[in-house]
Amino acid sequence: MVRGVDLQLRGFHNVCQHRGACLAEPGLTRSPRLVCPYHGWTYDLTGRLCSTPIASGPPAGHPGVWSLEPAAVAEMAGFVFVCSGEPWGTVEEAFEGLAEELARFPLRRLRLGRRVEHQARANWKLLAENFLESHHFPPVHPELERITPTDRAGTLPPRGAWFGGTMEIRQPFETVAVDGSLGGRPLLGFPTRIVHDYLIFPSCMLSVQPDYLLVYRLWPEAANLTRITSEIWFAPSSSADPSFDPTPVFAFWDRVNAQDRAICERQQQGLASPGFRGGCYATVEESSHRFAAMVARSYLGQRPW
Ligand code: FES
Ligand SMILES: [Fe+2]
Predict the structure, then answer these.
(1) How far apart, in whole angstroms, are the C-alpha atoms of residue 175 and residue 212?
(2) I want to staple 156 with a disulfide (CB 3.0 to 4.6 A). Which of 30, 112, 164, 224 is the partner?
């Protein structure tokens, strides 16, 4: 994805149209052009081929056919969405009602506290389904169940290609952290004892806590391997406060996320057993079922919701 001098965000498949080398490395950079590391074909930020070394110039006469292949991009609530195939519609259509829902939180202004990557030896869908239900809390995450009990979980009515849910923070806790307290960390917005969770189909998960935002993204690497990017974002004033201490939040989620990876890896192993007959969805697993139906429709090339 690039943002040109016209400030327009554009997305392209990361492949040079000469001999097919990947153009850009992962990560952020500033550059007025995209230069292929193989033979030096150079594209401007609108994706147009603007120069080539003499030796590897393309056949003349068809300017434009050597442009980068575009991918649809859109922005919402400070997030960028990219669709490498045929989009299901605009983000407003696909995620109907989500922008209004997220507008309650100052997401665009938050400061990144930490970004870590993990791998789970499990299919990405198991990790997504794990995010969509909380009745695994008592056996898998007793420390989370103590603060946000599963019997006080709520689900937002289904709308578009996203899921929303709430968890209530039990008295006397103030937030979800090792000590259950805010420890002087500023609130993101208004005082609240409600955690808001969202899964933006297919693979982005958000959890808005009183004093921080969790963002998880799932990157399928193989049928049984997923790379997970986990970020924790804090209120803008946190970066200026020398006494600001994020460690009770980091420590809590390091533990809980490791528990989720471990249980999903265990499920992945079990699913490979010839003794597993296909399973079932319990009533409280309505969201997991809706998710599975959305995946199935996507695989059929249909609009997922
Ligand atoms: S593959 Fe990119 S310049 Fe040759
Ligand atoms: Fe979990």
Answers:
(1) 9
(2) 164
Same domain for 161 and 287? Answer: yes
Ligand nearest to the backbone CA of 267: 2
Q: Considering the entire predicted model, what is its pTM?
A: 0.92
Question: Domain holding 12: CATH number?
Answer: 2.102.10.10
Q: Is 21 in the pocket of ligand 1 (CB under 6 A)?
A: yes
CA of 261 to the centre of ligand 2 (A): 8
Residues 101 and 155 in one domain: yes
Of all protein residues, the one whose alpha carbon is nearest to atom 4 of ligand 1 is 39
Please give the mean pLDDT across all residues of the chain. 94
Whether residue 57 is found in the same domain as residue 115:
no
In this structure, the answer to whether residues 32 and 170 fall within a common structural domain is no
The token pair at 163 is 């899921």
Residues 286, 221 share a domain: yes
Residues shown for the chain: 305
Distance 40 CA to ligand 1 centre (A): 6
How many structural domains compose the chain? 2
d(CA 195, CA 85): 33
Which ligand neighbours the alpha carbon of 21 most closely?
A: 1
Q: What is the C-alpha separation between 117 and 209, in angstroms, rounded?
A: 21
Our CA angle for 234, 235, 238, nearest 5°, is: 85
One domain for residues 51 and 102: no
Q: Taking the chain, what is the end-to-end CA distance rounded to the nearest angstrom?
A: 27
Query: From ligand 2's centre to the CA of 271, what distance in Å?
Result: 18
Q: The domain containing residue 177 runs over which residues?
A: 96-299
64 pLDDT higher than 80: no
**Does residue 73 form part of some domain?**
no
Q: What are the tokens at 196?
A: 């808001």
| Neighbour count for residue 114 (Cβ, 10 Å) | 14
